[in-house]
DUF229 domain-containing protein (Aureibaculum marinum), 552 residues
Amino acid sequence: MRIVNILFLLVLLIGCKPKEQKEVEPIKTPNILFLAIDDLRPEIGAYGSDIAITPNLDKLANQGLLFNNAYCQEPICSPSRASIMTGARPETIKVIENFTYFRDLNPDILTLPQYFRENGYETTSTGKIYHNEKFGDAKLSWSRKPAYDKMTIEKSKTPGGYALVENQELFRKSTAEVIEKYGKNAPRNGLGKGPAYEIADVPDTFYEDGYNAELAIVTMKDMLEKNPDKPFFLGMGMKKPHLDWLVPKKYWDMYNPEDIKLTTQTSAPENGAAMGLHASFELRARYGIPKKGPISDEMARTLKHAYLASVSYVDAQIGKMIKALDEAGVRDNTIIIVWSDHGWHLGDMGIWGKATNYEIATRVPLIIWTPEMSKSVRGSKSNALVELVDIYPTITELAGLPLPKHLEGQSFVPLLTNPNKKWKSAAFTQFPTPALREWAANPLSKGMRETYFGPLIEEVEGRIKQQQGEKWNRDLYENYLMGYTMRTEQYRFMVWRDYRDPNAEPVFFELYDHKNDPSETKNIADENPKLVSKLLKQFNKGWKGNLADVKS
């Protein structure tokens, strides 16, 4: 009888096995849609902007997870992007300004797309992912070129990228005048620019972001056609809202100038570091912008209008890309992540541009969507402190790959299931002396002092000398002084010291209480010595000492 029972059970098991195999779906390797935006502060509807028209980004945030407190590692293009793409921090890879190529100093470092390429992915990008083509890392990061041969639209190559003839002429004239007066190397410093914005009735694809979005779409289709079973890592980089704000007229027309509110914080923080703010060099280099003195309210409103129009233009391109992903039928197997490399001052603290250690320049939008995300999480917002350097380990973990050992970020995958989980105790950002650096973060060149910026530099330098007194040392302040920022849940704590020596005595502290002063209007370091001492101990633990305990 026992033998009969055993045989009966075996028959049942054998009979069930094919049925079990049919019910188990094979796990697919996810695609990665990597969407980068240049110079976008959290000025979109999903982050509470009362004016930005960004339906596509808002929709993605409503479907995925938005991070309220995401921070870049350095608020300028090349260092921020090099950090994101290598998964290492600016000082580790020794990239703290725009003219250093990370491969020159880190020839063997494994970039994010390179790692995915080595693990069977087709990797490619359009637009701005790395800082520029020179630093694009094409040979190692990307397995193929974009599908230029599938494009039916010709790329515009007008002077300065302008659509209007009058602006093209202004660009030519401005460049020629600067070269004649200051020499052929002057444009390297960003001088000789055309107008800061343009309103032209042209199709989206006339300007670079529209073209690159279309290129990304046809490239995705080409990859799916040629390698349908191979996962892809597709980067699409949007240049706007970086200057110059050149966008089709229809996006400009979305906004009523009368509805555009200007910042009420037009002054530097009380008792803030005199070296902490620059003179808006990047904007002032544009044609028609005052080379010194305040920006009038009328001009400020126009400039903010141009920035907002650029944001809406970029939002539309991202919407087209995601729609194409849906139509291709691969959305349910694609991870989508949207990030900006740093924020931007729109007159806040009296300046225009990025390149400061304050909240407005370091806080960025960060949104992620994954196919496996639960309904309870979709549309949620996490207040956890996260950093752009965390993107590499996060995407890698989501793809089921082991983490490379060189990474200096922390995967925030646990937050995708529990957005309110206790997380990092601090995020870290840095930027070298904004007041005495060109907007590429390199020390002031002799040429810059000889241009129309000379008097402005002297004015800023005078304020630093007056504040710093005996601590003032030109070589230190221009070449080696770094502002290090630690952002905790409540505070922004800033330590100014010589970056050559981790044990150097700080020359200045800044402390801002975000619970009582979210706009960072007053430095309260001097009146809170005990708190400064406490935060300095936390700061000295570094990023490693402030990571989340994933076991808790």
Summary: The chain is about 35% helix and 15% strand. The two ends are 54 Å apart (CA to CA).
